[in-house]
Write a structure and sequence with these properties.
Elements (H helix, E strand, L loop, with lengths): L2 H9 L5 H8 L3 H16 L6 H12 L3 H14 L12 H13 L8 H11 L3
């Protein structure tokens, strides 16, 4: 399960990925890949800057940077966390807190051990 799937499971049925994908000019699969990459950067030890996270996600996924830069504000709005700006209560900060909460399942403040455990589970180790 990716970070986006974790956030979606917390959000319930409030988000239609096909609609969101068409709003930012991506397919649903591209949206999932891009969102997981961006959120992974922001929720992990990658960066706190959404622009840098989008650039790194573009490098990792091969998706267009301009589309990925549109993704976080749209995702934030669709989840009802604000208008996508950092200044609004919730906003990107609320989205990032959800992503961090999904990754840091043991609540120790560091998602690294939890991500490692998830990776071990994928390889049955």
């Amino acid at each position: 399960m990716g970070i986006l799937d974790g956030i979606l499971s917390q959000a319930g049925d409030s988000l239609n990925l096909d609609d969101l994908a068409s709003q930012v000019g991506l397919s649903s699969e591209q949206l999932r890949s891009g969102a997981d990459s961006i959120l992974g950067q922001l929720a992990g030890d990658g960066t706190d800057d959404p622009q840098e996270a989008a650039a790194e996600a573009a490098n990792q996924t091969g998706l267009p940077l301009d589309r990925l830069e549109q993704l976080l504000p749209q995702l934030t709005q669709q989840l009802g966390l604000g208008d996508g700006s950092d200044s609004e209560e919730g906003g990107l900060g609320g989205l990032l807190e959800q992503a961090k909460g999904f990754l840091d399942q043991d609540g120790d403040g560091s998602p690294l051990d939890d991500v490692a455990d998830m990776a071990k589970g994928l390889f049955n180790r």
